[in-house]
Amino acid sequence: MPTTAPSPKLSTAFEQGGAPLSDATASDSALRRFLFGLPGVDAVGLEARAASLGTRSIKTTAKAYAIDLAISMIDLTTLEGADTPGKVRALAAKAVNPDPTDRTTPRTAAVCVYPDMASTAAAALAGSGVKVASVATAFPAGRAALDVKLADVRDAVAAGADEIDMVIDRGAFLSGRFLKVYEEILAVKAECGPARLKVIFETGELSTYDNIRRASWIGMLAGADFIKTSTGKVATNATPANTLLMLEAVRDFRAATGVQIGVKPAGGIRTTKDAVKFLVLVNETAGEDWLDPHWFRFGASSLLNDLLMQRQKLSTGRYSGPDYVTVD
Fold first, then answer.
1. Distances in Å between the alpha carbon of 116 and those of 134, 212, 267?
2. In terms of C-beta density within 10 A (0-12 exposed, 13-18 middle, 19 or more buried), how is residue 166 classed?
3. Cα 272 from Cα 269, distance rounded (Å)
4. What's the first-to-final CA gap in the chain, in angstroms?
5. Burial bucket for residue 318 (CB in 10 Å: 0-12, 13-18, 19+)
6. pLDDT tens-digit series, residues 243-299
7. From the candidates 131, 149, 198, 264, which is the catalytic residue?
8. How far apart are CA 207 and CA 196, in angstroms?
């Protein structure tokens, strides 16, 4: 169970002096007032708590559970200019059957690709239960006109994407045009149809924890199904501290609205030890309700291989050879 309670009522920020939370997006000035009314982030305290939770010891039985849970939460990702249909089909096969020598190994949550590869992934994953996630909105920089971004989303959904990972306009956010960011997320959400929407902040470019908290609330108010740390394409991606901050945000948002939002750290999570640390953050901050692939994901590529090797070590007592897992 979580050890941290939701923040105090925060009535000034959450209720705008008694007004409904929805009024926070009534105008640019109202949104700005709301966002700057959120409590400031204690950076030292945040990082200290994230570091402290990262020292928790996980024993054998719990570790086996955590490994299988982490595998089931992976969005197995390939987002390279050299991606080919063959590579995407091979990745899809690995997502469905990560360890051909052990059929008890869980499937991953999704395969994440560029929009032009979504139809290939959808065909390869048909009937498997593994979702097709597609990045969109001129990923990773987001530097395109809105109509181009929306066309990108429509193409991905039409090609079979179950989930859309969009990037926010960081330039608009950093220049204080918060309503523009909000309205763009709303427009993308409308184009998603039945597909779930993950909103990527690129936390490494937002400069401050206060900005990450504000971006989290913009995304949640605009209808994001997930808030996501990063693209994996910049120097600083998911960290325990920025993920902890976003977990606090979704926890507080549910306390204020009753609506649950997922979290997806992405980029730089490569080892089983890393994954377990993040699962501890989830449990101790947001709570057990988020310990489910529907509400928490890892955006990763190499992480799965390490999880598979650690899983085999637990079952056989020895590490596998270097040819045990595929090189993606």
1. 9, 30, 22
2. buried
3. 9
4. 36
5. exposed
6. 999 999 999 999 999 999 999 999 999 999 999 999 999 999 999 999 999 999 999
7. 264
8. 27
**Full set of structural domains in the chain with CATH:** 31-316 (3.20.20.70)
311's CB contacts (< 8 A; 6+ apart) are: 64, 67, 68, 71, 99, 102, 105
Q: Which candidate in 152, 165, 169, 252 is catalytic? A: 165
Residues 296-326 pLDDT 10s: 999 998 999 999 999 999 988 777 665 566 6
Q: Catalytic pick from 228, 252, 274, 277?
A: 228
Q: Is 165 a catalytic residue?
A: yes
Structure tokens belonging to residue 117: 């590869």
d(CA 95, CA 317): 25
| Residue indicated by tokens 């977990």 | 247
| Omega cis (within 30) before 265 | no
Q: Please answer whether residues 92 and 129 qualify as being in contact, where contact means their C-beta atoms are separated by less than 8 angstroms.
A: no
Residue whose token pair is 């030292």: 44
